[in-house]
Design brief:
Layout (H helix, E strand, L loop, with lengths): L1 E5 L1 E10 L4 E8 L5 E6 L3 H20 L5 H4 L2 E5 L2 H24 L3 H13 L2 E3 L1
Parallel strand pairs: 1-5
Antiparallel strand pairs: 2-3, 2-6, 3-4
Helix pairs in contact: 1-3, 3-4
Amino acid sequence: MAIVKTNITKLEVPRLDTRNKKIQVKIYTDTHSPFEKSLTLTNSETITKQILNETKENVKINTVPEEDSIFSRNVTVTIENDEKSEKKISFFISKLIEKTNKLKSTTEPYDYMKLYNEINDIHILKI
């Protein structure tokens, strides 16, 4: 059994659809090239788990060549500083959800644009 260690170095949100509560997340790791995932803004813990699981799956797929599919079953991917990364990602996502929800209830044009700009400014998380 092979053990592959990786680290999530950065999360980027290139697209945020506030109306439909959808985000496009670009996930950077220290072992492989970045990949993108579309997610629905529901619950920060659920989204965090999805990001961590997708990262593990992506690293696993990119580590073992397709010809060696027998060995791919025996690859375990671990994320270093898993708890620290999970807390930071969860906090980052919860802020996005909070501000997106606030945006929907804002009626004043100035406050709406101010909040909209704040949401667009928090699109990168370095871990």
